[in-house]
């Protein structure tokens, strides 16, 4: 089975936490503080991949 996660347009907060290598609580704190843009779809909080890229660029982690 092929891994298609690289093609995802949105990520869950848990997936973002894993990619950033931080805890889930820290990832939720970034979302709730507005530092990391996210959208709520029903009960789920989803982070657009572009928002994660923007966050990393602003943090100076990606050139």
Automatic annotation (TrEMBL):
GO terms for molecular function: DNA binding. Residues 10-58 form the Helix-turn-helix domain. Pfam families: HTH_17 (PF12728). This is Transcriptional regulator. Signal peptide: none annotated. Transmembrane segments: none annotated.
